[in-house]
Amino acid sequence: MEIALLGSGSQGNSVLVRSADSVLLIDAGLSAKETTARLAKVGVSPSELLGIVLTHEHSDHIRGVGPMARRWGLPVWTNEGTLEAGKASLGALPHWGAVEIGVPFEIGDIWLEPFSIPHDAADPFGLTVKSSQGYHVGIATDMGFVTQLVRSRLAGIQGLVLEFNHDLPMLLDGPYPWPIKQRIRGKLGHLNNRDAAGLLGEVASPDLEWVICAHMSQENNEKEIIVHEARGALAGASSLLSRPSMALLHVASQLEPTPLFGSAGQFSFGQDNGEDQP
Length: 278
Hints:
Elements: E1 2-7, E2 14-18, E3 23-26, H1 32-41, E4 52-53, H2 59-62, H3 65-72, E5 75-78, H4 80-85, H5 87-90, E6 95-98, E7 105-107, E8 110-116, E9 125-130, E10 136-140, H6 148-153, E11 159-163, H7 168-173, H8 178-185, H9 193-203, E12 210-214, H10 223-238, E13 248-251
Parallel strand pairs: 3-4, 4-5, 5-6, 10-11, 11-12, 12-13
Antiparallel strand pairs: 1-2, 2-3, 7-8, 8-9, 9-10
């Protein structure tokens, strides 16, 4: 199984998941035109997609879902709360696949397990995805804080897409109005670097092969800060393990796709962004 982020940040989020026999998107927050262009960069046509899984209804995750679904006849899997909250943006869909948080489901040969996350949306969820060969990846973004459920779902994974949204001092000292700062740092907002690193340190194991740091704020974060925090977490976890984690580390961009990450933590497309060692 291979994973790539087509884009990550407040202007649009989308994750490509490709197994031996199946291809799907998790969210489509870029425009349909831009989503198609970025899929081409990683060698995928929209005609190959089996569908889109929508984690919540915010515009940076939903923008391209309806147009992509109608253009290519794609099913959209999400829960009732998200479907209802997002209906104005989604429009008519060719097919809706009902998702119940906590209940695993299959798309082709990909096994998905949705879990609740704390965010200011109708009924948001994170996901673990697993291939038929057992390769296991966690996707956890758009969280105000880390819950015990999140910790348990991300244990024992081989790959991790994890939100490193903001540096708290940068947010507090930055230009945003106070209500927006309160929303971002609140219990239903976004995960700051320190809390994300704490979670990474808790779930890192010798099985963890790669980490993509996602949903970075352009105004309230810097790649160098993320790398420092994430590397520290991986190093701290490794010091407690008899067999250290050698996870590759990559910071996702809003402007271009990440490489494809797959088995053994190897890139299968392009080059890493220079942050490939803990």
